[in-house]
Amino acid sequence: MADFLQILVTAVAVGSLYALIALGYTMVYGILKFINFAHSDVFVLGAWTGFTASTLLISRFSISGPPPLWLGPLVLVTAMVVCGLVGFTIERLAYKPLRKAPRLNVLITAIGVSLLLQNVGQLQFPIAPDLALPFGASPKRMPELLPDAALLTMSFGDNQVVIGLVDVIIVVSAITLMLALEVLVYRTRLGAAMRAVSFNTDNAALMGIPVDRVISITFVTGAMLAAAAGFLYSMKYPGLNQPAHEVWVLLGLKAFVAAVVGGIGNVRGAVLGGFLIALIEFMGQFVWARTLDQWFSTSMAPTLRDVYVFAVLIIVLLVKPTGLLGTPIREKV
Amino acid sequence: MQSLADNLAHQPARGVRDRVLAQAPWGVALLVALVVHFVLGPVLGPYWSQVATQAAIAVMLAVSLNIVNGYTGQFSIGHAGFAAVGGFTGAAVSYYGALALWGGATKQEGFLVPGEWLMVGGSLLGAVLAAGLGYIVGLPALRLRGDYLAIVTLGFGEIVRVLLQISGPQLFEADDLRSSGFKQWFPPPLGGAQGFTGVPTYASLFWVGLFAALVCIVAYRIKFSSPGRALLSSREDEIAARAMGVNLARYKVRAFVLAAALAGLAGGLYAHTGVVMQPREAGFIKSFEIIIFVVLGGLGSISGVVLAAIGLTVLPEILRDPQRLIEAWGLLAAVGVLATVGGVAMRRSGSRWAPLAVGLGATALGLLAVALVASGANALMRSATGDPQANIGKYRMIFYSLMLIGAMLLRPQGLMGVREVWDHFRRARPAPGRPGGAAT
C-alpha cells in the first residue's frame, strides 16, 4: 500500500510534466498540423538554461547555503523567456517559409532543427569560463534550489509515504500554468483567434485574424511551457544529461505519446494524456517489476517502462486513432 | 518525373534473348563484387577497405530506406531498429553457429569459406525477422496518416534498443553453449548493455559489394516497374493514386516490409565488420543518420542517395588525417577528370552511356570541391585553436542538420530530386535508342 501511494505521488508529479510538454506538441499540431520534433529539444534547452541561470546567479551573488526563495521563480522565468525567444526564432526561420509546403518537408525540417539544437547544445559556449558552464558534452548536476524537505509524511505500519516539497511545487506550478493556458485559449480574444486559425486558417485570415502572428504566439507559448517543464524536471531529477542523450529523447517521445493518446490538437486531451501515460508507465513498472525480475533473474523492469508507453500508443492508434478526446478529421480533396 | 516518362517508353523484354539479357544485372552485380574485392581491395589497402565496407553498408541502408521515405513519401525513422534486428540475428547465428560447429569463432582464412556462408545465412535470417517485424509495425501505422508512422517507427527503434539492453550476457565458450539451458536463452544471450563482441569479420568487400549492388538493382527495378509507379504516384497525390485504382495500404506495407528486410540484411553484414554490436545501434541517432543520406541525396533518387551515403561516410574519415586527405583528393581528382573527359568523348561518338560517365565525373569533382572546402575549414580551425589534432568532422552533425533545413527551404525535393544523377547530364536532343529522350 505504501509503495503504491509513493509511486502514485511520483506518477502525478511526472505526469504533470508530461502534460506541460504535451501541451506544446498539441498546440502546434492543432494549428500547423505537423509534429514539432524540435519540441523535446526546447524542453532540454529549458532544463539546461535553468541550470546555467541558477549556477550563474548563485556564483555572482555569492550565495552559500540554501538559496533564497526568489531564486527558483527567477530562474523559471529566465528559462521560459530564453526558450520562448528560441521558439520564436525557430518558427520564423525554419517553419514559416514552409507554410504551403508538403507536410513531409516540414517534418524533415523539424528533424533538422531537432538535430541542430541537440548538436549545438553539445558545444562549449564561453558564457562564464571560470565556471566551466554548460552545454558541454559532459553531464552536470543541477544546484539545489529547494531544501530536500518532506512536506507530508504518512505512515502505513512500517512503511512511510513521503510527499516531498519538490513534488508539490512541480504539481502546483504545472497546474497553475495549465490553468493559465486554459484561460488564454478559451477565455481571451487571442485564444479565440488561435482556435479560429486551428479550425480553418484561410477563413481566419479572411476574418482579419493576423495568422502569422497567432502562429508565432502559439509557438512561443508552447516553447515556454516546455521550458517550464524542463526546469521543473531538473529540480526533481538533478542529474542533467548531455542534450542529445536518449533519456531526453524518450521523455519527449512519451510526452508526444501523451498528446496522441489524449487526442492530438486538443488542449484538455494533452493534460489527460500526460497524467494517463505517467500512471501507466509507473504503475506498469510497479505491477510487473517483481514478477519479471523473478522470472528472468535480471533487473530488467526499469528499462521496460518505455515499452509499456509505446504499447499503449499502438493500442490507442489501432482502437481510436484520433485519441481519447480527439475529433475525427475528414479528409478533403 | 522525366525519368519515369522515359521508362514508360521502354518496351518490355520479349523473346528468349531479351529475357536472358533482362537478367544481366545480377551478373553485373557479381562482376562488380569480384572487381571490388580483388582489384579495388588491394589498391585501397586495409584502412580504406574498411571505410569502403562501411560505405557499402551505408549505401544498403540508405537505398532501402529510400524505398519507404523516397518512393512512397511515408516517413520512417526507425530504420536502424530493423538494421539492429538483422545485425544481432546475424551476429548470434554466426557466432554461436561457429561455436557449435567448429568449437570456436576464430575467422577462417580464404575466399568463400564455410563461415562466410554461415554469415550469409544469418544475415538472410535477420532480413526475414526484420521483415516480419516490419509487417507488424507497418500494418497498423500505415493505415493511419503519415506522421504516425514516424512516431511509431521511432518508438519501435527505441523499444528494440531497450530490449537489447536487457538481453542476457554473451556465452563465450563452446562448453557454455553446450550446457546452456532455458535460463541462458531467455532472454537471449545478445550481450546486454555490454554489446556483442567477437563476431568473425567475414563481411569482406566481396560480400558487401555484392549485396550493395543487389540492393541497388532491386531498388532500381522497383522504381521503374508498375508497382514502383504505384508507390511514386501515392507519394505525389494519394487521392489521385487511389482514384487510379492503386491499393495504397497494400503497396505501402509491401514497400515498408521490403525496406525493413533489406535493412536487416545490411545490419547482418554490419555485424561482421569487426564492430562491437551495441544496443545503441538501434537508436534514433543511427536512424537519423540514414535519413540524412536519403534526404540530402534526393528523396527517390537511387544514385543521389548512393552518392550521399558514400560521400558522407568517407568525408569524416578524410577529415581525420591530412595524409588521407591527399590520397582521397588524388583518387577523386583522377576519377573526376577521367570520367568527365571520357564522358565528353563518348558524347561525341553518341554513346548512350555518356550521361552516366559525365554524371560520375561531375559528381567526383563535386565531392572533391566539398572535400577541399571542408579540409580548408579544418586547416583554418587547426591554426585558430593551435591544436594539430582538431577535427572539424566532430561538428559534422551541425553542418548536416543545417544542410537538412537548408535543403528543405531551398530545394525541397532533395539535392537530386527523384531523378538520377545522369538525368541531369542528358542532352536536349533525343539520344539514340531512347525515343523522345529527356530534355533536362
Structure, described:
The complex is a heterodimer of chains A (333) and B (440). Chain A has 333 residues and is mostly helical. Chain A has a domain at 19-245. Chain A has eleven helices and four strands. Chain A has helices at residues 2-32, 39-60, 71-95, 103-120, 165-187, 189-199, 201-206, 211-236, 246-262, 267-296, 301-319, and strands at residues 140-141, 150-156, 159-164, 239-240. In chain A, the strands form two sheets. Chain A has a two-stranded antiparallel sheet. In chain A, strands 2-3 form a two-stranded antiparallel sheet. In chain A, strand 2 (150-156) and strand 3 (159-164) form a beta hairpin. The termini of chain A are far apart. Chain B is an all-alpha fold and 440 residues long. Chain B has a domain at 2-281: ABC transporter involved in vitamin B12 uptake, BtuC, CATH 1.10.3470. Chain B contains 17 helices and no strands. Chain B is globular and about 70 Å long. Residues 428-440 of chain B have low confidence and may be disordered. The interface between A and B is large, with 48 and 45 residues.
Could you write a compact summary of the structure shown?
The complex is a heterodimer of chains A (333) and B (440). Chain A contains 11 helices and 4 strands; from the N terminus they run H-H-H-H-E-E-E-H-H-H-H-E-H-H-H.
List the SSEs and their pairings.
The complex is a heterodimer of chains A (about 325) and B (about 450).
Chain A: H1 2-32, H2 39-60, H3 71-95, H4 103-120, E1 140-141, E2 150-156, E3 159-164, H5 165-187, H6 189-199, H7 201-206, H8 211-236, E4 239-240, H9 246-262, H10 267-296, H11 301-319
Antiparallel strand pairs in A: 1-4, 2-3
Helix pairs in contact in A: 1-5, 1-8, 1-9, 1-10, 2-3, 2-8, 2-9, 3-8, 5-6, 5-8, 6-8, 9-10, 9-11, 10-11
Chain B: H1 2-8, H2 15-22, H3 24-72, H4 79-102, H5 114-143, H6 146-165, H7 174-178, H8 182-185, H9 205-223, H10 226-236, H11 238-243, H12 248-270, H13 284-297, H14 302-320, H15 322-348, H16 354-385, H17 396-410
